[in-house]
Write a structure and sequence with these properties.
By secondary structure, this protein is α/β, with parallel strands linked by helices. It is built from 7 helices and 10 strands. It has one domain: Nucleoside phosphorylase domain (Rossmann fold, 3-Layer(aba) Sandwich). The strands form 2 sheets. Strands 5-10-4-9-8-6-7 form a 7-stranded mixed β-sheet. A 3-stranded antiparallel β-sheet has the order 1-2-3, sandwiched between helices. Helix 2 runs parallel beside helix 6. It is globular and about 45 Å long. About 40% of the residues are buried. The structure holds adenine. The site of adenine (ADE) has 12 residues, from strand 4, strand 9, strand 10 and helix 7.
Length: about 230
């Protein structure tokens, strides 16, 4: 979401490069930080509904267009997520997941079951995680902000530490392109809390985006990036 990107654009004085590709809605911003060229990509605004373009489908198409245009050495998916109080999570926690899967893709046929679930390993980021004060574990992605009882059962089976709407789709796309992917996520809401997810999400969005921006600045200057 642009709200997640703007504090990073401001902190790092990123300049607009325009659209990622002529037929894309995604916008790119760039600068050199600590000797590295960095490009931040937002998914853009939907032309019909005039809201941010979110979710796994847009995440994969934006990722593919960004890989084709910028050929990065490393991708980092930055954004908010839901956490799990049953697994020690709290609002404002920072996550650098160790692996990514999908909790809402279910195909009960051997082979397809595993393909649909996905299971994508992030490169080793133990030192970076310690430097940033982030937790690891599995991030599970799906197309919905809320979670049905069946989603919840699968999230528990996966022992997910965070839930988002993009990371696993980007992980699949980056894996296919053989580009390593890290994710940096900050918790806005707790999946296993009775409050409606959208209420907690909207209340905590600003503080989470500010934590993401300061953590992104630290990540960009880190000597612990996996490359
Ligand atoms: N982003 C922030 N909170 C989320 C949640 N609970 N599920 C999916 N994406 C999120």
């Amino acid at each position: 979401m642009r709200a997640e990107a703007q504090p990073i654009i401001d902190r790092e004085s990123l300049h607009a490069l325009g659209l990622v590709a002529p037929n894309s809605f995604a916008h790119a911003f760039a600068n050199t930080v600590a000797g590295r060229t960095i490009v931040l990509v937002t998914h853009g605004t939907d032309p019909l509904h005039h809201c941010d373009r979110i979710g796994p489908i847009v995440a994969a198409t934006t990722c593919a267009a960004s890989l084709a245009r910028f050929a990065p050495r490393l991708m980092v998916n930055i954004g908010t997520c839901g956490g799990f109080r049953s697994r020690g999570g709290a609002i404002g926690d920072l996550h650098v997941p160790q692996r990514f899967a999908f909790h809402d893709q279910r195909v009960p046929i051997p082979g397809f079951r595993e393909f649909a679930r996905g299971m994508f390993e992030a490169p080793n980021a133990d030192a970076l995680r310690a430097e940033l004060g982030a937790v690891g574990g599995l991030c599970s992605s799906g197309g919905s902000l809320d979670a049905t009882p069946q989603d919840r059962a699968i999230l528990d089976e996966l022992e997910a530490r965070c839930k988002d709407m993009e990371a696993a789709a980007i992980a699949l796309t980056a894996r296919d392109a053989r580009v390593p992917l890290l994710a940096l996520k900050c918790v806005t809401d707790l999946v296993d809390h009775p409050e409606a997810v959208q209420d907690a999400f909207l209340r905590n969005l600003r503080s989470a985006t500010l934590r993401l921006a300061t953590s992104t600045s630290a990540l960009l200057r880190s000597n612990n990036l996996p490359w």
